[in-house]
Design goal:
The complex is a heterodimer of chains A (about 375) and B (about 400). With about 375 residues, chain A is an alpha+beta fold. Among the domains of chain A are: about 140 residues, no CATH class; about 120 residues, Cupredoxins -  blue copper proteins (Immunoglobulin-like), CATH 2.60.40. Chain A contains eight helices and ten strands. Chain A is elongated, with a radius of gyration of 31 Å. By secondary structure, chain B is an alpha+beta fold. Chain B has two domains: about 90 residues, Helix Hairpins, CATH 1.10.287.90; about 280 residues, Immunoglobulin-like (Sandwich), CATH 2.60.40.420. Helix content of chain B is about 40%, strand content about 15%. Chain B has a five-stranded mixed beta sheet with strand order 3-2-1-5-8, with no helix packed on it. In chain B, helix 2 packs antiparallel against helix 3, helix 5 crosses helix 11 and helix 9 crosses helix 11. The N and C termini of chain B lie far apart (about 75 Å). The chains are: A alpha+beta (about 375), B alpha+beta (about 400). At the A-B interface, strand 4 of A face strand 1 and strand 5 of B. Chain A: Keywords: Membrane, Transmembrane, Transmembrane helix.
């Protein structure tokens, strides 16, 4: 015989099926709404199955179960969590989308917990059994969920620290933390007798230190370069000055690290004031680089001269909006010092014309590399 | 039927099925028309892989037979006949060490030869010609960068068929404009993924002129199975002719002809996405296609010299009819170039498929080309859409396309 909880979830499943069918026929067959309703069917059907499995099959008669009108066996703080979620949703609608999304997450999480607790409190007259039933249903969700939340918090705290300290300090800090975790891992693996005792000290202390450092970093704000960059909008197109001289904004804090070498199609080098190019796969210099249309393509620029240089790509010109004003098109790397590298990633939708050929140049250096876009 | 007969009958059925499967697998190896057979290398790179297979596969067979044989023997020897459970011991160090060391030695031998082959296949210093290969749903684009030593003084863009000189070390620089694809001509080399934002290198070389078939080897969406390719190896002299022809200046059809009317239809309907180099508008300005505005991948096949190819629509359909196709496929190596360079003549044109394609392309090849299904593509087509061309327009277009040689 089905009991109250099972009937509830079976009813919810049936209603979801009806709602989905109506939605598919009357509203939109290829919409996210249908997907959400199918998700509801799946969830409700799963909970029906769990309810029948954990309660209906474990009690011999319904009489063994507690009266449905009985009050909850223990105090619950889930209503407060749900209320907090609802408040965050309302607040998020008026302020930041992230608050709204977090509110939805809290609302759904709290609602599920409240619902399952309410159901498990009445699963039978045996409180220990009820607690076990609750753990059976939610244990598999709570631990991974809690771990995910903790991971996000830890990552967030680390990010605050990295944004507050200098780039070099962040690198050293991360290496140290990684080394300490690695060393501790070795110690705990080797000394099993130490594990419980030491973990009960090391973990809370580490978390407390991380929390303090994260909060202090968050309060002290991001490092000066980042604040300046955000205020001055260094990478805004109007600040991208591609001449020989240093640009006031664009060349600040040049990034000379090139991580994605697999995407590089050609390397352009300036050495002894001469520009030369090599294409990947060809072991000789070329004077023309061919780039397929509408294909994200990366060119590596390497400066081997003493003076700072930048690579400029000239892509013809175009009218500005509906006006008759014609502006040159192109972009450039930041100024880069001796032995340093930068990349230009280009996606070019139109080929060059005979009147306006494309090219790569290095201001102040001799020579140019023709750029052909078929 | 008694129990014994039932068991015998059941065993016979199982044995019959197994023999049937084994016979089918064996007979499949005898197929004559199998252009994508990985066991018939036609170039040094594929031969390297084949040589490695010849070493690794016998070892794998021997290991497999020993392991399977031992397993079957143990199943039979120790099956439950009601006997006593043997004494349970813990570990046999000599056996465990042997069972670890022997596979490690076998893998080391295999590993040495495998790594050597991998490094040999990754060699690029001896490249003689470079071709950029770009995958998109669901066709391949080939563009030949400027390489004056091969007579390529302006970039050549083509699709469907990769044309290259036989006996020449070709380096393909692969990438993709949308999702991950994989380039695979089994007779010439192994697979290599084409990944958006990355450039992957693949060596290719054919011993003899000929036509080598391939297939996209990474599931890339609805028409993955129809994303085919053909590599055309020509003698060096024939390749030079092909290059010269691809760079030939565009000659517009004579005014007042059906071809000229077809050019007008092309400009109105096709030039938005497809490029024909040299095509100009009424004011004499070059017509530059803008597939980036209409197509999800940002590209559509360049149709300059379309009729020098034998296929269209991602090599799914032949541009030449069956007889002419057979003439090219069946041509002996020394005559292959001559047969291929004939291109598509009016007599050879596969009118049926080309017209059907122009009439309603999405009906011919599964594509996300229905306007009501374009949500995931940001309102852009994946593949050629239905253009609602009239039969008259199609006649004119076919006449015009036949001039693109």
């Amino acid at each position: 015989m089905f009991t109250t909880g099972s009937k509830y979830f079976i009813g919810l499943t049936a209603l979801s099926v009806v709602a989905t069918v109506l939605y598919l026929f009357l509203v939109n067959p290829s919409d996210l709404g249908a997907l959400a309703l199918v998700g509801l069917i799946t969830s409700a059907a799963t909970l029906s199955g769990v309810s029948i499995f954990t309660r209906d099959s474990d009690t011999e008669t319904v009489e063994q179960a507690v009266d449905a009108s009985a009050g909850p066996a223990s105090a619950s703080f889930w209503p407060i969590v749900v209320a907090l979620g609802a408040a965050m949703v309302l607040l998020g609608l008026a302020t930041e989308p992230v608050v709204f999304v977090l509110g939805i997450a809290v609302l759904v999480g709290g609602g599920v917990e409240w619902m399952v607790q309410g159901w498990s409190d009445r699963a039978s007259a045996n409180a220990a059994y009820n607690s076990e039933v609750r753990a059976k249903v939610l244990g598999g969700i709570e631990y991974p969920g809690l771990s995910a939340v903790l991971t996000i918090i830890v990552a967030f705290l680390f990010s605050r620290i990295f944004l507050a300290v200098s780039k070099d300090a962040a690198t050293i800090f991360f290496m140290l933390v990684a080394a300490v975790i690695f060393a501790l891992g070795f110690v705990f693996a080797a000394r099993t007798d130490l594990r419980k005792k030491a973990l009960s000290v090391v973990l809370p202390v580490s978390i407390a230190l991380l929390a303090i450092a994260g909060v202090v970093s968050a309060l002290s704000g991001e490092r000066k370069q980042l604040v300046d960059a955000a205020r001055e909008d260094h990478f805004a197109i109007e600040h991208r000055e591609c001449g020989e001289e240093a640009s006031k904004y664009y060349d600040k804090h040049a990034n000379n690290r090139v991580p994605l070498r697999k995407a590089v199609i050609a390397t352009i080098t300036v050495e002894n004031n001469e520009v030369s190019a090599k294409m990947i796969g060809l072991d000789r210099k070329v004077d023309t680089i061919t780039i397929p249309r509408m294909n994200s393509t990366t060119v590596l620029f390497r400066n081997l001269d003493d003076s700072e240089r930048r690579l400029v790509v000239n892509l013809g010109s175009a009218k500005v909006g509906d006006t008759d004003v014609v502006e040159p098109l192109g972009t450039c790397t930041q100024l880069t010092g001796k032995g340093q590298e930068q990349v230009l990633t280009l996606t070019i939708p139109k080929p060059a014309t005979a009147e306006e050929p494309f090219s790569f140049t290095v201001p102040g250096a001799n020579g140019e590399i023709k750029l052909v876009v078929p | 039927m008694d129990t014994v007969s039932r068991v015998k009958s059941s065993r016979r059925r199982i044995l019959g099925t197994l023999v049937g499967i084994a016979a089918s697998a064996t007979l499949a190896g005898c197929a004559q028309n199998a252009p994508q057979d990985t066991w018939e290398p036609k170039g040094p790179n594929a031969e390297m892989i084949h040589d490695l297979d010849n070493l690794v596969f016998p070892i794998a067979y021997v290991v497999g037979i020993i392991v399977l044989g031992l397993a079957l023997y143990i199943f039979w020897k120790f099956k439950d006949r009601g006997q006593e459970i043997p004494v349970q011991g813990h570990g046999k160090p000599y056996m465990e060490i042997t069972l670890t060391v022997v596979p490690a030695l076998i893998l080391s031998v295999v590993g040495v030869f495998t790594f050597r082959t991998i490094f040999d296949l990754a060699e690029t210093q001896d490249t003689e010609i470079v071709i950029n290969v770009t995958g998109q749903q669901w066709w391949w684009e080939y563009d030949y960068p400027v390489q004056p030593e091969h007579g390529i003084n302006q970039p050549i863009v083509t699709s469907g068929q990769l044309v290259f000189p036989a006996g020449t070390k070709v380096l393909l620089r692969e990438t993709s404009r949308d999702v991950i694809h994989s380039y695979w001509i089994p007779a010439l080399n192994g697979k290599k993924d084409a990944v958006p934002g990355r450039v992957h290198l693949l060596r290719l070389e054919a011993n003899e002129p000929g036509l080598y078939a391939g297939q996209c080897a990474e599931f890339c969406g609805l028409s993955h199975a129809n994303m085919r390719m053909e590599a055309i190896a020509l003698s060096k002299e024939d390749f030079a002719k092909w290059v010269a022809n691809q760079q030939k200046a565009y000659v517009p059809p004579a005014a007042g002809t059906v071809e000229a009317e077809g050019e007008a239809v092309y400009i109105a309907q096709c030039a938005r996405c497809h490029q024909v180099n040299g095509l100009k508008d009424a004011q004499g300005k070059p017509i530059i296609s803008a597939p980036d505005e209409y197509v999800y991948s940002g590209a559509a096949p360049n149709l300059t010299a379309l009729m020098t190819r034998n296929t269209f629509a991602g090599a799914m359909f032949d541009l030449v009819n069956e007889k002419c196709r057979a003439d090219v496929w069946g041509a002996p190596s020394e005559k292959f170039g001559e047969a291929y360079l004939k291109g598509v003549t009016e007599d050879c044109l596969n009118q049926k498929d080309l017209r059907a394609w122009l009439r309603n392309a999405p009906e011919m090849k599964p594509m996300y080309a229905e306007p009501n299904l374009l949500g995931p593509s940001d309102g852009k087509y994946r593949g050629m859409p239905y253009l609602a061309l009239t039969e008259d327009d199609i006649d004119k277009l076919v006449a015009y396309l036949l001039t693109l040689k």
